[in-house]
Amino acid sequence: MSVKAELVLVLMNIRFGLTNAFLAYLFGVSAARCSCIFNNWVKFMAQQVKSLVLWPPKDLLRKTIFSTSKAKYPKLRCTLDCSKTFIYRPRDLYLQATAWSDYKHHNTIRVL
Prior knowledge:
- The protein has helices at residues 3-16, 20-27, 31-49, 58-64, 67-72, 93-99; strands at 83-86, 100-101, 106-111.
- By secondary structure, the chain is mainly alpha-helical.
- The chain has two domains: 3-51; 55-111, no CATH class.
- It has a three-stranded antiparallel β-sheet with strand order 1-3-2.
- A hairpin with a 4-residue loop joins strand 2 (100-101) and strand 3 (106-111).
- The longest helix has 19 residues, at 31-49.
- The two termini are 29 Å apart.
- 5% of the residues are buried.
């Protein structure tokens, strides 16, 4: 695959949450190859944008945190949010229970 095609594959996976099997069909490669391409590109992109992630000084953060959060969590430095993506129900009952979201009423994966 060309570098451009690999990038498109990765961006489609990120944007639309397509399965490796579907992307493999679209791009004419194996699902394992899709997974390998995705993992390599994500590592590469993380390295490229690492310098764009800036942590402000602690005193500046303390000034901008809500007073309710500041009182309840005095050492709070940041808040992280996860996104959930719908997935097909796994066959394994343990995985079904693990992937179930009461909030979404569907099986989901969570991505930080």
